[in-house]
Amino acid sequence: MKKLLLVTLATIALGATALVSFAQDELPFQNEIEARQSFMHILRFNLGILGAMAKGEAPYDAAQASAAANNLLAASKMSNSAMWPAGSDMSAEGLEGATAAKPDIWASMPSFGEKGHALTEALEGMAAAAGDGLGALRSNMGAVGDGCKGCHESFRAPED
Amino acid sequence: MKRTLVFVLGLAVACACVFFVLSMPQPLKADQVPKHNANLKNGELIFWAGGCTSCHAAPGAEEHERLVLSGGVELATPFGVFRSPNISPDSAAGIGSWSTLDFINAMVKGLSPQLEHYYPAFPYPYYQNIAYYDLIDLKAYLDTLPPSSNQVADHELRFPWSVRRGIGLWKWRYLERNRSLQTSDPATPVERGRYLVTGPGHCGACHTPRDAFGGEMVDRFLAGADSFEVAEGTQGETVERIPNITPHPDGIGDWSATDIAYALESGFDPDFDSFGGSMVEVQENIARLPAEDRAAIAAYLKSIPALPSDPP
Q1: Residue B7 falls within a domain, yes or no?
Q2: How many whole angstroms separate alpha carbon B298 and alpha carbon B148?
Q3: In a domain, B34, yes or no
Q4: Residues of A in contact with B233 (CB under 8 A)
Q5: Which phi-psi region, left, alpha or beta, contains residue B95 (left: φ > 0; alpha: ψ -120 to 50)?
Q6: What is the C-alpha end-to-end distance of chain B, expressed in Å?
Q7: B275: contact with A, CB 8 A cutoff
């Protein structure tokens, strides 16, 4: 009787573990969503280095500034389409709250691509100037901001 | 039976009379408005602070086209769909035939030159706080912009909101609460910031929640709200949440005044995430103001009551 009880409990425990791991395992497109959110985080991290200098919160350092600007440029040039598969937008089933990507992205993919290119162009300008002094860095922040806002205005939903 | 009928009819007539009287327009007269030689440079500043292009430029217009205030932006609200009018200086389709007094009555009293009430989707409860001199300057600046002959369709509103005269009652209830005590010649940055935020900036029109009649809940000033959907270019049905911008931890309490001013200048928050959605255009308008005005807005926002966000 005791053995039967133990076996039953063990089976339930095993089953529960399997169920839990199954439930936690798969948001649709979880991998792609995490990848693109990490991508944005990398952009923010490097931009923060430049921005702290632009705001006067950190001393200007030409080498650091150049490195951060070149990181931004390299990141923006990555071939990213695999991170944006169709069906991974915020209105897709199972993805509520998991991503802020609006369906508008896939409805106007050429525009999304153009805005990505515009960001790269702005970052080319920053990479060329970031090591040339604080004035040059500051005067390129506006174009970089426009590059970020270009997508966020149309394609990203606000946080809850 | 007959007596009851007469009584009911009499009551209905009495109510109609009360409604008619309470909802009467109360325009300013010419002698209530000072004489002033318009300053176009200041008019342009008030224009950008007031964010006129966000509603009155044609949907999708870019760059210099945004100075053609041909109207037609649709605002889908619980009351129905509002459509912004043509306010270019075209004398037939726009406001080119308006006198300066007409313009001031629109901005301060929410009244058309024909003394019809405007719906407060046009944020005159905030614009009523703009000084007369600044309004005179603004009208003069608007007169320099390109004319447009664009005709905009009427609003599509549900009953009873479609009864425009009813806004006269709305004004009785709601117009006073948005009136802000300030001078137009402020002594401190905080006062200048108060003027910009509660007047032309009309930040509360988005960031303060509204009650069932569309009046702002002033005890939740700038504590965040559910947005109205902007029909043009938006898909999906999520209700967007407009942020809390009071100095509470739920809001922007951990932003310094410098952070706020820099965000308005550049579009970057202190973590270097960029603004998005409707706030992009607002930021780009405020970016055209002088730096001391952004610093003033920041100083004011650090001084208002810190309010927690509504629970979801």
Answers
A1: no
A2: 36
A3: yes
A4: 104, 154
A5: alpha
A6: 53
A7: yes
Write the DSSP string, B10-36. Answer: HHHHHHHHHHHHHT---PPPGGGS---
Q: Nearest C-alpha of chain B: how many angstroms from A70? A: 17
Residue B3 lies in a domain: no
Q: Residues of A with CB below 8 A from B271's CB?
A: 44, 48
CB A73 within 8 A of CB A123: yes
pLDDT confidence band for B234 (50 / 70 / 90) = very low
Spell out the domains of chain A, with CATH numbers in brackets: 29-155 (1.20.120.10)
Domain region containing B102: 29-303
Phi, psi of B225 (to 5 degrees): -160, 165
pLDDT digit string (tens) for B102-161? 999 999 999 999 999 999 999 999 999 999 999 999 999 999 999 999 999 999 999 999
What's the structural domain count of chain B?
1
Name the strands in the sheet holding B229-230, side by side, starting at the edge strand that comes first in the sequence: B156-157, B80-83, B74-77, B229-230
Would the CB atoms of A160 and B236 count as touching at under 8 Å? no
**CA–CA separation, B201 and B199 (whole Å):** 6
Q: Per the domain annotation, does B289 fall within a domain?
A: yes
Burial A122-133 (b: 16+ CB within 10 A, else e): bbbbbbebbbee
Q: How many Å apart are CA A113 and CA A44, to the nearest integer?
A: 20
CB–CB of A150/A140 below 8 Å?
no
Using CA atoms, how far apart are residues B312 and B293, in angstroms rounded to an integer?
Answer: 34
* Percent above pLDDT 90 for chain A: 72
SS3 B225: strand
Chain A positions touching B283 (Cβ under 8 A) are: 149
Task: Please report, as a single letter, which amino acid is at residue B194.
Answer: R
Separation CA B258–CA B271 (nearest Å) = 13
Interface of A with B in 22-81 (CB under 8 A): 44, 47-48, 51, 55
Minimal CA separation from A100 to chain B, in Å: 11
